[in-house]
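During the no-cost extension, the postdoctoral fellow (Dr. R.K.) reprocessed legacy sequence entries with the updated structure-token encoder. One reprocessed record is reproduced below for audit purposes.
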Amino acid sequence: MSLTVGQESNNFDFQICPQGNHMAVCFSVIDLGVQEVNYQGETSYKRKVRVSWELPNELITQGELAGQPFSISKNYTMSLHENSFLYKDLVTWRGKAFTQDELNGFDLFNILGAGCMLNVIHTTTQDGQKTYANASSVSQLPKGMKAPATANPLRSFSTDNYDDNVFNSLPEWLKEKINLPVPQAVQPHIPQEEALDDDIPF
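Re-encoded structure tokens follow.
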């Protein structure tokens, strides 16, 4: 199966992901289908994907998840246009630009298990009631640094190749967010690309 091509808030019982530049490993790529986007009074519909990382060196210390690594997610528009956030983050993650062949078809599931450096920043609402951890920027791991295996199982879901078992394993709030099916008229043509023969896994 392939997928050809966030924010977390804190409250009284939620320990927020620490800010700073962290080693991170991608463990989840979830196709959200076509989502309604409202921006500056305009409504549009865009195919979205949710990418999640865990931070192996930053462990939760409170609650039922104590001892588990923090995780953080970011939602992207599924586009490799040079001005898209997905394109920019993948280029800095890979440390190199895409070739034209890759732009014609890149399997986003190739980033599963791949390590990176992830910069996390905190933003607080004007009333001071909530603080959000945001995945701000992505870059390559330093030379010689290897990504460890993830504590979370690797998870992928595509609305193009619907898998009932995978869908039912997702949290209820995430299942409610996914729009099925994706209208054929807005499905991007992104065929699977062969893996690159170098140290970068995607």
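The chain has four helices and seven strands. The longest helix spans residues 85-94. The remaining legacy entries will be reprocessed before the final report is submitted.
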